[in-house]
Amino acid sequence: MVEQARSSHRLAGVSSMVGTTIEWYDFFIYGAAAALIFNKLFFPNLDPLTGVLAAFATYAVGFIGRPLGGIVFGHFGDKVGRKSMLMLTLILMGIPTILIGLLPTYETIGYWATVCLVILRFVQGMAMGGEWGGAVLMAVEHAPEGKKGFWGSLPQASAGAGLMLASIALALVSLLPESALFSWGWRLPFLASIVLLGVGWYIRVKVPESPDFEKVKQQTETIKVPALRVFKNHPKELITIIVARAAENAWFYIASTFALAYATTQLNIARQEVLFAIVCGAALSIVVTPLCGHLSDKVGQRRLFLCGLCILALYCYPFFIMLNSANPYLIWLAFFLAVGVVFPIMYAPESMLFARQFPAEIRYSGISISVQFAGVLGGGLAPLIATKLLSLNQGQPTWVIIYIVTMAIIAIICTLYMKSDRYYQQHISKLTAEVESPPLKS
Questions:
Q1: pTM as predicted
Q2: Residue 387 counted as domain residue
Q3: What are the C-alpha distances in Å from 148 to residues 20, 112, 264, 423?
């Protein structure tokens, strides 16, 4: 029985990482294409900066769909189960990605191409909104006490793996002649999702249901609408997670999408060089994220998350200084540290930190809703806001730096209001004592 539990939590952790890597690939390949290609294919009548802004607007639609996905899939994840929702979100992410690869461009069907692109991106966003909560809960809820931070960080490491795969795919097709790239080459990374979808399904179907959810099913009380319980009984948890996570999310998409467009369009740096730097940073994050997850089990998830936010506030200015230096080595180092070090310190402890803010019976809804609303404020709007701030300041990133640092400071304040690491440990100790020494009945 013990050996089966060990095998179960390993399988849940690894499958969550592999499956989520595939879904992040689908999500990120759109972001990279929006920064480099879609402005010319779907908005050819706009000037370069406005075209990038329009492409990022369709990119942001995916983040608008994520809260809705968090509510819908969170509801059924708390009512039906974590596993079934993970299988469904995998399909709803993969199929739109494949269809984007088959989509006619503006040159063929005019603005209908943009309409179809927006619809497919919205479906992607809904799927991603429901997927993250289920993946991290399967990893955290299967994991043993004292190691939940590490196992919960594995699906977090998948963000770096998905970004690396997406960047490599786009970098490879970028080696094609420009005429081939913009006629058919850009479609290949999207169509590759056919293979990834099959791999993800094969791996996830083997994972048993979450033990915490199995316990919830045995309870006599059933919650009809978990999302309503979240909004009614846990508003503080919702607000603190949304604002705190928005800063981390904004940083990731500023570094991986906005800065990619900024470096190639404003600084005239070759896109292959920038993509290579992002790939290196993403590869490093795959290693650093589990290490930070392990560290969070030692020092506490909230402490590590606070440390990451402080590093973000301090690193933002040097990041843009290195980019503006036009030195290839400093540019590489800027992206390498941004994606591979600064981001994982914040991202790794989030699974366990956010999951423990809500009880098991509404946990899927709680973390999905809060994290996905944070995605709208951070990831969805950040590239748009940063691009607009850049244009208002004659292409200088000063206002972008102020924007990110302000978000980091506000996030630090919100994190201080979350349940502390000591509170969680005391809660677990109390539950353990009650199980080992149940109260005597009179």
A1: 0.79
A2: yes
A3: 18, 47, 40, 16
